[in-house]
Automatic annotation (TrEMBL):
InterPro entries reported for this sequence: ATP_synth_F1_ATPase_gsu (IPR035968), ATP_synth_F1_gsu (IPR000131)
Pfam family, one: ATP-synt
Similarity comment: family membership: Belongs to the ATPase gamma chain family.
Subcellular location: Mitochondrion inner membrane
UniProt entry tagged with the keyword Mitochondrion: yes
GO cellular component: mitochondrial inner membrane; proton-transporting ATP synthase complex
Gene3D superfamilies according to UniProt: 3.40.1380.10, ATP synthase, gamma subunit, helix hairpin domain
Topology relative to the membrane: Peripheral membrane protein
Species of origin: Bambusicola thoracicus (Chinese bamboo-partridge)
One Gene Ontology term of the molecular function aspect: proton-transporting ATP synthase activity, rotational mechanism
Top-level lineage group: Eukaryota
Location, primary (coarse class): mitochondrion
Protein name: F-ATPase gamma subunit
Keywords: ATP synthesis, CF(1), Hydrogen ion transport, Ion transport, Membrane, Mitochondrion, Mitochondrion inner membrane, Transport
Amino acid sequence: PNFDLQLLTLLVTRRLKSIKNIQKITKSMKMVSAAKYARAERELKPARIYGTGALALYEKAEIKAPEDKKKHLLIGVSSDRGLCGAIHTSIAKTLKNEITNLSNAGKEVMVVGVGDKIRGLLQRTHGNYFLMTFKEVGRRPPSFGDASVIASELLNSGYEFDEGSVIYNRFRSVISYKTDEKPIYSFETVAGSGK
């Protein structure tokens, strides 16, 4: 019986030591995550100006694509990797609904995927709608250079759309995102708006 008690004490001691080590690792991971979050938030603030500026332009100019226009472009923005499925699937679900609604309305729809996750989620069921995909976009802080590469590739693709939408997740808090949609218009649509 004394031997069993010593063995049990040894097992409990090892388990406690293991738990303390796991707690140390978890604490370190929390600190790293907090630092990454603070850096990402700091880097995002200057980039937000570009999005709000473009949206204000569309609202002030009252740009609307004519109803008879048939070509619609959807740009889905996700990430290349990550385990948080709800973030990616909400964008994919919105894209699927938009593809269905626009196709039923007789419009030609093409999709541009920014981030590998969106391509992976839609490739099997909606792969024929993809015009192009982009990977490794969010590796560095967002910049005008990244956006201009995507815009150049899109302009050089030969696909002439009339209007489109950018579908992305808007950050609300550390644990909450809201899937949002912003309009984009072709050069011809903007030039023909009259304002």
